[in-house]
Amino acid sequence: MSEVRGINISAVSAWLDEHVAGIESPYTFNLIEGGRSNLTFRVEDRLGVSVVLRRPPLGHVLATAHDMAREHRIISAVGSTGVPVPRTLGICEDELVNGAPFYVMEFVDGVVLDNPEKGAELSTDERRDIAFNLIDVLADLHAVDVEAVGLGDLARHTGYVERQVKRWTSQWQNSRTRELAAIDEVALLLADRIPLQQSVSIAHGDFRLGNCLTDIPNRRIAAVLDWELCTLGDPLADVGYLGVYWASPDGVGQRANDPTGAGGFPSHGDLVERYAARTGRDVGNIGYYVAFSAFRLAVISEGVYARYLNGAMADAVDPAILEGFRTAVEELAEGALNSLRANQ
After folding, report:
1. Alpha-carbon gap, residue 308 to 231, rounded angstroms
2. Pairing of strands 39-44, 50-55
3. Which residues contact 184 (CB under 8 A, 6 or more apart)?
4. What's the rounded Cα separation, in Å, for the pair 182 and 195?
5. Beta 201-203 vs 220-224: how paired, if at all?
6. Within 10 A of 101 (CB to CB), how many other CB atoms are there?
7. What are the backbone angles phi and psi of residue 103, rounded to the nearest 5°?
8. What is the SS3 assignment for 247?
9. What does the alpha-carbon distance between residue 321 and residue 155 come to, in Å, rounded to a whole number?
10. Which of 7, 132, 145, 156 is deepest in the core (most CB within 10 A)?
């Protein structure tokens, strides 16, 4: 067998044979490109049946990050609702098998809409319907009874934004590779303007089209992915986060890994309005949540940048990618700062 970085092929194959029904060795393991944190592999068995394996990144990681058991628990719980997620198939917490915990879930067909070029391939009606289904899925996620699905003890029910600001401020101190005054100022302003939390919900933490599999023919979200940042908290944080990525209908203001840069999508304001109509929540302070989300994403991006510098990711380091993450941190920090200053 050829080696696959991050996978002990013989040990993982034996574990899959014993613990996951419906698949048989030998297996092929291929890293799914696009992820910059936890590593995701498509695993194909001898008959061509595919499943997906998730494991933490290689090398040093922050102590509270990349908890496979927690992520598996969340997806399993959400899978008992109408929110579309892959079905979980098993979890291995024995680090002797693969050097780190991992879990396995079903393979879901769909397209990851993660750049403007993919957005441009959609018709105007597809862009509208997929966007509105995305926000409807988010509203459905936020309507889940956390106690009923067994996630009531996942995190505190109150003080979400306050503890998140503290967490990401601390994370910045742990991950930073340079001084960046804008980040420090944003952290202070956010802490000074903590909004009143209206309700508690499952907060995905990274909800966007680039973290979903989209069923384009049926114009719907087939599965929501990447739950590693999920917690309990203020649902408006997820709505604000969409605003960091979402371009205006003419395609202005997007991030490079979002399809809305193609233009022709409903505005973020349209999504916020639809969300408010479906949930009854007050969205008048959504600008704070956009700024908060830009700050958090800046800190996350710095962490990924730091891991690249340390050689912790499983793919080769491309200097252009390195510079892209470095620049993104600075742009997000300035964007958050400008949003907060505009709301004074």
Report:
1. 26
2. antiparallel
3. none
4. 21
5. unpaired
6. 21
7. -135, 165
8. coil
9. 34
10. 7
DSSP 134-161: HHHHHHHHHTS-TTTTT-TTSS-SS-HH
Cβ–Cβ < 8 Å for 207, 242: yes
Structure tokens at 311: 């050689």
Burial of residue 120 (CB within 10 Å: 0-12, 13-18, 19+) is middle
Q: How far apart are CA 225 and CA 228, in angstroms?
A: 9
In which band, very low, low, confident or very high, does the pLDDT at 204 lie, cut at 50, 70 and 90? Answer: very high
Instruction: Spell out the residues 6+ positions from residue 265 whose beta carbon is closer than 8 angstroms to its own.
Output: 119, 127, 128, 131, 246, 247, 249, 259
Q: What is the pLDDT of residues 216-273, one digit of tens each?
A: 999 999 999 999 889 999 999 999 999 999 999 998 876 888 999 999 999 999 999 9
Instruction: Please report the domains of the chain, with CATH numbers, ordered by start residue.
Output: 9-106 (3.30.200.20), 110-153+204-229+256-281 (3.90.1200.10), 159-196+282-344 (no CATH)
**Predicted pLDDT of residue 341:** 79
Residue found by looking up tokens 């009923």 in the block:
148
Where do runs of H (alpha helix) occur along the chain? 9-19, 68-78, 95-98, 116-120, 124-142, 160-175, 181-192, 236-245, 268-279, 286-309, 319-342
Q: Which two tokens stand for residue 76?
A: 């399993």
CA distance 103 to 20: 10
Pick the closest to residue 150 from 70, 74, 223, 204 (CA basis). 74
Q: Alpha-carbon distance 205 to 228, whole Å?
A: 8
- 134 vs 272: CA distance, rounded Å: 12
Q: Is 41 helix (H, G, I), strand (E, B) or coil?
A: strand
pLDDT band at 314; cut points 50, 70, 90: very low
Report the residue count for the chain: 344
Instruction: Give the residue from 193, 188, 159, 166 showing the smallest Cα distance to 287.
Output: 193
The DSSP string of 9-38 is: HHHHHHHHHHHSTT--S--EEEEPTT-SSS
